[in-house]
Amino acid sequence: MKVDVLLGLQWGDEGKGKVVDVLTPDYDVVTRFQGGPNAGHTLEFNGEKYILRSIPSGIFQGGKVNIIGNGVVLDPALFKQEAEALAASGHDLTKTLRISKKAHLILPTHRILDAAYEASKGAGKIGTTGKGIGPTYTDKVSRNGVRVGDILHNFDEKYAAAKAKHEQILRSLNYEYDLTELEKAWLEGIEYLKQFELIDSEHVINNYLKEGKTILAEGAQGTMLDIDFGSYPFVTSSNTICAGACTGLGVAPNRIGEVYGIFKAYCTRVGSGPFPTELKDETGDKICELGHEFGSVTGRRRRCGWVDLVALKYAIMIDGVTKLIMMKSDVLDTFDTIKACVAYKIGGEEVTEFPYEIDDNIEPIYAELPGWKTDMTKMQSEDEFPEEFNAYLTFLEEELGVPIKIVSVGPDREQTIIRYTEE
Ligand code: GDP
Ligand code: IMO
Ligand code: MG
Fold first, then answer.
1. What is the pTM of this model?
2. Which of 49, 224, 270, 356 is deepest in the core (most CB within 10 A)?
């Protein structure tokens, strides 16, 4: 068997959580492979709303195995909060959720370092989620990290050594901080973690594949936030792309099956950094309002704009996307005209290949299509799609060269339309 991967193709918040939940009945196992509590994945069903940060979105579909893979960075304090809230709402995860021993721990001082580095960047700050993601991955790569498996061996010593290094850096930055509360909650989180099965996830996952079990890997963030291929330096600190599923789970590239690429019918970005199709006008405000575009974790207003096919094609190429999923189509239900950026104008030249430098000098060139002006939120099948919406889908499929397999018309699990397959 193979691992299917679901990835955000834009700057995150495409609706990954919702679709992973919808697809989970087809899988035995759901895994996260990168990122950490910088993610906020929203699911809605039966009138309830859940926001997951470190826990895979496959937990609500009856007893499936969910795994936090080695590529994830885990904050025990935030994990405890998340898991306890789920347990209180009737979702006890201690039997179904397993955690890789090789996942790295976000330390309290990583969170403080994140804030200190941001403060030192001034106006050039990344606008991180403040969860300590960058400093934790930095320690992983510089071989100073503390891993989940370390909880079981010489933990106090390893924690003290890492903390001392961080405190030295913080002193050199003259950064004032108070660790007391953070550390207390964190150490409670470490104890809490011990009731979960801490596993050698690369063995477990490859054994599952041998046994014929089906696995879905759930991406966090999006391809344009990838550390190598995103809008560097305004990116996150992990490989959010398909290849990240190989390193973040320990599965070989030839074990990857379908690659689901998920995008919004428009585009958003939260935090700093370039965004060529951003709309700083009434249309942008209208998308923000209709799409409720506020961060699920931080509450920050998301910047909004038209869909960017130059960036999407790039993401599809890097990820090897085999099937597309278009989200939040309903947000555009009332628009007279829908725009899609088909090329960039840079210094008088038209560019269709995503360039090295993306900055304010890029002028998007748009194709304009008629809006469908129909409420799509109650539609159940593609037979009900308005003609203009079908024309928009055909236009996107021709431009992007990949079929759109699922269309989402609202936040609820039920507001999801699987299109006919012609394989
Ligand atoms: P993720 O991080 O990719 O899982 O996405 P988020 O949960 O951060 O953001 C997506 C937001 O859009 C959430 O509030 C979802 O409930 C909501 N959502 C998902 N799909 C749809 C849709 O098709 N239409 C509308 N209107 N909202 C959606
Ligand atoms: P999900 O999984 C949207 C952004 C931050 C910031 C940059 C770096 O919900 O799609 P970090 O804290 O990772 O060092 O921040 O990345 N960012 C996200 N934006 N959705 C996310 O996750 C994000 N995770 C990080 O806003 O610009
Ligand atoms: Mg999100």
1. 0.97
2. 224
